[in-house]
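Researcher: Can you fold this with flavin-adenine dinucleotide in place?
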Amino acid sequence: MLEDLNSFSKKIQGKIKFNYSLKKHTWLNIGGNAKIFFVPETLIELKDFLLYLKKKNLSPFIIGAGSNLLISENIQNRIFIKLGKNFNKISLTKDNVIIAGCSILDKNVSNFACENHLSGLEFLSCIPGSIGGGIRMNSGCFGTEFKDVLLSVQVIDLNGNVHTINSKNIKFDYRQTDLPKNLIFLSASFKTSKKDKTQIVENIIKLKEKKQNSQPLRVKTGGSTFKNPKNSLKKKVWELIRENVDNQVSFGDAKISEKHSNFFINSNNASFNNMYDLINFVKKRVKESTGVSLELELEIVN
Ligand SMILES: Cc1cc2nc3c(=O)[nH]c(=O)nc-3n(C[C@H](O)[C@H](O)[C@H](O)COP(=O)(O)OP(=O)(O)OC[C@H]3O[C@@H](n4cnc5c(N)ncnc54)[C@H](O)[C@@H]3O)c2cc1C
């Protein structure tokens, strides 16, 4: 059992940082300094760290590519874990199952499938997150979600025990799963099917074009801010916002994208409060004008 983090940090392959800024670990480029930021490179060091936290009665937050997170500046007492490079391995079984480490980016898994003439994971080329974040969020686009392709996920719990969960035992919903928050996803297996590579490439290009035409590019954003609500008006959330909120509204550098009104943008140096105020402003306006309650897709960490 590890007793002291400073000596632990000298023995491990991974990195442990104290009072560490998370700004550059999120797409929104917002966030304060974490008490501890741990990047494990082996399962053993991850397990040791989790047992240390358990002994101290502390719990970590797992961060993936940070593309769905709004992190507060007040995280000086919080502990974050981000899986390191050794958790981004990818391989293929003879029956066309792809096994991917959970820190690998979705687009790299899509590319790997394409290179191996395997279809089914083209949609991953359009999601800027990691496999871990995608499973947690049941991410998806253009009609396919993680639930459609995931076979199983290997996880570690906060007691350091590793389990494999068959996707049949996971309840998936729109941008959520019932997987307990205290699990860290380590690797996952995905089903694919053989297809002509040219057709896969064509499909990826088509999906990327669709995405590029409808969403802002090269900006600091957390993607869709709110989920599409079930509503009697039968409108998408971007329509509800566009029709009921002045899209020039801003709080500091927190703004609504001109290209997609459900994408909020940090145009320079927005703070957590700026973005939070914009979220609440939009939510209130839509509720007052339409009666529809918006639910966040973006996850707030504070
Ligand atoms: C420009 C842009 C476009 C986007 N387009 C889409 C889209 O088309 N479709 C869509 O669904 N989403 C979209 N998103 C949102 C986002 O990319 C997805 O939700 C993505 O899957 C999040 O993955 P991540 O690795 O960034 O997770 P993070 O944002 O880092 O974390 C999200 C959640 O996953 C958890 N998590 C991350 N890794 C692990 C792990 N290893 N084990 C356990 N929990 C973990 C975190 O604790 C957190 O709860 C978009 C975002 C941006 C910025």
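Model: Folded with flavin-adenine dinucleotide in place. The chain is about 30% helix and 25% strand.
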